[in-house]
Specification:
Blueprint (H helix, E strand, L loop, with lengths): L1 H23 L5 E6 L3 H18 L2 E6 L5 H6 L5 E4 L16 E4 L1 H5 L6 H11 L2 H12 L4 H12 L3
Parallel strand pairs: 1-2, 1-3
Antiparallel strand pairs: 3-4
Length: 160
């Protein structure tokens, strides 16, 4: 009786571990990325989040923020990255006027698990032009999903 119970316990443990192990890959460092309303912020979010994911393996969690709230939430450490309107350009990681600028908070700057994120975003900032963003916005306005347009753009350019 004990032997049968022990076999069942081992089998049940094995089944639970094999069922749960694929989900373990979902847990890792995530960036909280503030996105204000509007297609410009949306397409920039899609570009940055996908580029960072492909280059560093770090996922982004989209956080919708009201216009003008992003910097306050970034300062309160509630966001890691934020797209802000009307930036002064002083601390921007990505700035393609007249589009929203990208700023980073403390975690991407100081936390060791994010050491590759800022260099990846700096590289994207050096590659991306405002004409590219304008063309992507036209594709989105024509009905293409912003995530699909961003992926196709980055893939076509060979950036991911």
């Amino acid at each position: 009786m004990r032997r049968a119970l022990l076999k069942r316990a081992v089998l049940l443990t094995f089944l639970l571990l094999t069922a749960v192990s694929p989900a373990l890959g979902c847990f890792g460092p995530k960036l909280y990325f503030g996105v204000s309303p509007g297609p410009e912020a949306e397409i920039l979010y899609q570009l940055c989040a996908l580029y960072v994911k492909e280059k560093t393996g770090t996922e982004s969690v989209r956080v919708d923020v009201a216009t003008g709230e992003g910097l306050a939430l970034l300062g309160d450490d509630k966001l890691d990255l934020v797209l802000v309107e009307g930036s002064d350009g002083e601390e921007d990681l990505l700035r393609l006027a007249p589009f929203p600028a990208l700023r980073a908070g403390k975690r991407p700057r100081d936390d060791l698990q994010f050491t590759t994120v800022l260099p990846a975003l700096h590289k994207l900032a050096g590659l991306l032009r405002r004409e590219d963003v304008a063309a992507l916005l036209a594709r989105v306005a024509a009905g293409e999903a912003s995530a699909a347009a961003a992926r196709a753009f980055l893939t076509d350019r060979g950036w991911i």
